[in-house]
Amino acid sequence: MLDFKEISAKDNRIIKLTALLQKSAKARKENSLFVLEGLRICRDAADCGVAFDTLIVSETARKKHANDIENFSKISNNGVLIPDYLFEKISDTETPQGIIALAKIPDITVPVDKSGRYVALEHIADPANLGAIARTAEALGISGIIVSGDGCDIFSPKALRASMGTLLRVPVYSCADITEFLKANSLRGFACVPDANADLKIGETCFLPGDVVIIGNEANGLTENTVKGAYKTVTIPMRGRAESLNAASAASIAMWELLK
Question: How far is residue 155's CA from residue 122's CA, in Å, rounded to a whole number?
Fold first, then answer.
């Protein structure tokens, strides 16, 4: 059984680091660590083979979730036990369950399958959208998710929770430029645009293995360079007065058509 170190000082290094990792993508990158908070996401991570650098539990959680904590302790290098009030200070949820794991950010080693089908996200800013798109991608059988480097951090607590663990299971490829990534991996990009003059309508497009649907930023859509660099532009025809769909809805429809 893991030997838990008891901590009660709010200025303790682990406490301060955890609070910082919850908020800062820069801190996560610099420390190569990300935060998993809550029973379900920690279970999902453990099932995916993720090892925990540090397991942090509250006094109440240690009693209430003893079996889970015992299982988590087997894959943890360090254990920390803290008072409930201190856990609330480092929690990123409204109703903390008293369990946080700090884990090493993994290196993506899964090669791009040129016969796969992917969704690419350019400048997606909302972690909730990223998480929702990831869940749909996994449910439909998408081969992987391509994310431009200046989008929201895939290891942000909100994105991980919204994805229900999907971002730990589906290959995610970060890149500086989506167009260059697609070229380098011999993939065809279809830029999804809210434009009636697009090359193709999404429901009439014949997608093939190696194709990618590209979704743009929530407010600004795709950049001009990405649209120009795409193999084709596609649009989702809309009726009524709506001019566009939100990113998660558009991605869901596009992925469905891509795999149909």
Answer: 17
